Amino acid sequence: MLAQQLFNGLLLGATFCLVALGFNLVVGAMDRLNFALGETAMLSAVLGALIMTETRVPFLVSFAAATLIGGGVAVAVYYVSFRFVSADFPTASILSSLGCGLVLTAAVTKAFGSHQRSVPDVLSGVRLDLGAFTVSGAQLVILLLATLLTAGLYVFLERTPWGTAIRAVSDDATMSGLLGVPVQRVILLTFALSGVLAGAAGLLTGLAYHSISPFDGFTTTLTALMIIVLGGLGSVTGGVLAALLIGLIQTLTVAYLSATLRDLIVFILVGIVLLVRPQGLFGRNAGVLERV
Amino acid sequence: MSSFNEAVVLQVGINVLLALGYWIAVSTGKYSFGHTAFMAIGAYTASILTLNFSWSLPLAMGAAGVTAAVAGALIGWMALRLSLLYLAIITFVFSQLVNLLISQWDYVDGASGMVGMTGTTVPLVLGCVLLVVGYLVLLSRSRLGLAHKAIREDERAAMASGLRITRIAVGAFATSAAVTGVAGALSAHQLMVITPELFGPHQALVIILYCVLGGVEYFWGAAIGAIVLSLLPIYFDWLNEWYEIVYGLLFVALMIVRPQGLIGRGGDGGIRLPRLVPRRERESVG
């Protein structure tokens, strides 16, 4: 029982991790938060589920479609809420992306209704029995895709020229620009990547719960915020660890305490972390108060 | 006054109070993304007092203001030392926390809400607005108001000039929370029914929009923003259906064209069109 819950928790954490990575990429490149990312995830998930139920294409095709839609929406949000918004007003892009999120949620409810949308199961015949716990086909797919995307992102950031450029821009945008890095294009790339991750996370979370609600977007943003505060703003490793931790805490709370306490315990944990270690549990830079 | 006009005046008056309360926090440059938490605290405190302890409304409003101020001071003390991004996150989380706690609290009927508060009258609302406007007029002519402005414009310079910026900012935040709490109490006794959902993120965004639409430089900018935005949906019915889309787009358009709000100067004055090629990628601080 405990082993099963631990596994479920890690699985939940793996999907959280994707959105949190998306947030962290953008924070790294621009020092600004894209508050519409949760809604981006929701929109891609709803469209992905719609494609799957309407056209009966294999899951992987609709998954690819969801990631592409996520990337596209994130790029659109970049142009609307970041590119043409003055950097002199730090709140401007926060408010603007919150507004984008409102519009996305309202547009989805207007176009497709506000009901919960079911996500068809995948690999429903598969069931791995590993002694202490069992893994269903859907869980296997989630685990594989989430791991693949996280590992792929890591390799991309560490081993490719564009990944190096992203890290350079998060380190010092002015200096990278002077050294010939096309900063605007790199920022655009980080937004597209964050959207791809959000789209993937949205559909995978939908698969885990077998349903998607158009009002999930905001919850996703909230969870991702908890994760990046806990893991340290802009820290990729911290984000991954914090996502797994929050996934575990939420699952164990629901399993052994009560479903209503799920968010409460995470909120309290985050509050304590903000008071005691504002740079996050895994953040290294103690100068975060100066920097952010 | 017809009951329709009365309802309009009450609604607009309460929204103006919310905007002015929010403006007090913003006048020090500290944006909260969870001011509905204080509204909820005020609304529930006052409702419990009038319903279960049969206090009179003005007395209960006072208590609501004090409770909200205490909560505001606590959150401000926690969050205002941190930078804008963290302040945004922590206030946001706080409002979610308050919402969650209220919806779990059986004494106030949890998510189904409290029913039966009455007694908000036009003189009471207008009196509160006048009181707050009076305070703000005095504030903007006082050294404290100047200190707020200094902190908003440049925190480091303010600190270097000997201002105790954390104390001033926390004070402003608590005052802001108090006004918001009183507005919450009034709105609870006008709506006659309150549920935690009323104090959700949408309401928080609307309060911010009141302020940023009018501009954060002068308090009457916030008041005008509140008046305009509360009258629009009343007199344009079709807006109700498109409410969220219109408000969302308003945010987006406003931030591109006039991030400093309709009223107020933005650096060199006049309407600046955004540059197609931004001048610099990122401002390095420190």
From TrEMBL, chain A:
Q: Which UniProt keywords apply?
A: Amino-acid transport, Cell membrane, Membrane, Transmembrane, Transmembrane helix, Transport
Superkingdom to which the source organism belongs: Bacteria
One GO cellular component term, please give it.
plasma membrane
An example of a Pfam family matching this protein is BPD_transp_2
- Topology in the membrane? Multi-pass membrane protein
List the transmembrane segments. Answer: 7-27, 59-80, 92-109, 130-157, 186-209, 221-249, 255-276
Location(s) in or outside the cell: Cell membrane
Does the UniProt entry include the keyword Cytoplasm? no
**A Gene Ontology biological process term:** amino acid transport
Where is this chain primarily localised? membrane
Q: Does this UniProt record's set of keywords contain Membrane?
A: yes
Enumerate the InterPro entries for this protein.
ABC_transp_permease, BCAA_transport_permease
Gene Ontology molecular function terms on file:
transmembrane transporter activity
Recorded family membership:
Belongs to the binding-protein-dependent transport system permease family. LivHM subfamily.
Q: What is the name of the protein in this document?
A: Branched-chain amino acid ABC transporter permease
**Taxonomy-wise, where does this protein's organism fall, top ranks first?**
Bacteria, Bacillati, Actinomycetota, Actinomycetes, Streptosporangiales
Automatic annotation (TrEMBL), chain B:
Annotated localization: Cell membrane
List where the protein spans the membrane: 6-26, 59-77, 84-102, 122-144, 165-186, 218-236, 242-257
Q: How does it sit in the membrane?
A: Multi-pass membrane protein
Q: By its UniProt entry, which Pfam families does this protein fall under?
A: BPD_transp_2
- Cell membrane as a keyword? yes
Record GO cellular component, one term: plasma membrane
The UniProt keyword set, sorted, is: Cell membrane, Membrane, Transmembrane, Transmembrane helix
Top-rank lineage group of the source organism:
Bacteria
Q: What is this protein called?
A: Branched-chain amino acid ABC transporter permease
